Every structure is written in C-alpha cells, then in structure tokens.
C-alpha cells in the first residue's frame, strides 16, 4: 500500500459546492497535553492539573485552544494536498474539549471561484456539538492549463 500523498491530491475540478470533506478524528492524551504545555511554555494548570482545573470550574483538564487550532490547520492542509495552498484560515473556540475523547474534524465546500475554494470547517463532538467553527480559503491545482 502506497503512502504517497501525491496520489490523494484534490483538484478544483473534482469539487462541487456542498461536497463534504472526509472526517478526521483526533484524541488528546493527558501526556500529550502536559507535553504541549511544556513545549509552548504554557503554565496554566487547567491543561495538566485535574484538581486545579476543577477548582476553576472545568469538569477535567482541557485541551489547549491553540492545539485544536493546529489540528484544524493540519486538517485543511492535509485535505488540500501537497500542491494545494492555504490562503487563509480562521476559527473560534466556543467550547472546551476534554482529554481522552474523540473529536471530529469536518468540512464542506462553500464556494469555488477559479482555483480558490472556500470551506466551512469545524471541530465537533461525535454527537454533533460544534466546539470550534471556522472558515478556510484554499487554492487548489487545476487539471486544465489556465
């Protein structure tokens, strides 16, 4: 089985408004959250100290917003493929994600203009609660010379 990403390159002609992107699932371990805090010099204890997180009113430690943003960015970049280019990406963190739970990254094609594709992208719980809505603008290769 080949793992060559070039074989999965999406081209603008492959898409139509309303097409759904493949779902990707992410799950952060407690160790990953501790290491992310260390790597980003984030001392806020809500990301690695359960008792402290509960003291601040959270049900458990919470996944870093920037980590979720990095996952969303990777989701869009991976979908665009090696010849795609992300022109813009923005999102809002609207609810907390907890460790050791599955979160789905999803997207839908909202618009196509030339080789630029506009996407609605988001992170959600398996039961459909949206934690992080966003938008992306991606330039994709064309199969046709322009």
Portion in beta strands: 25-35%
The succession of helices and strands, N to C, reads EHHHEEEE
Low-confidence regions = 1-6
Tally of contiguous helical segments? 3
Main sheet: strand order? 1-3-4-5-2
- If you average the pLDDT, what whole number results? 93
Strand count, sense and closure of the main sheet? 5 strands, antiparallel
Oligomer: single chain
The CATH fourth-level homologous superfamily of the domain at 12-28 and 66-139: Hotdog Thioesterase
What are the defining features of this structure?
five-stranded antiparallel beta sheet, Thiol Ester Dehydrase, Chain A, 5 strands, alpha+beta
Summarize the structure.
The protein has 146 residues and is an alpha+beta fold. It has a domain at 12-28 and 66-139: Thiol Ester Dehydrase, Chain A (Roll), CATH 3.10.129.10. It contains 3 helices and 5 strands; from the N terminus they run βαααββββ.
Report on this structure:
- With 146 residues, the protein is of the alpha+beta class.
- It has a domain of 91 residues: Hotdog Thioesterase (Thiol Ester Dehydrase, Chain A).
- The protein is 22% helix and 27% strand.
- A 5-stranded antiparallel β-sheet has the order 1-3-4-5-2, covered by helices on one side.
- It starts with 23 loop residues before the first strand and ends in a 7-residue tail after the last strand.
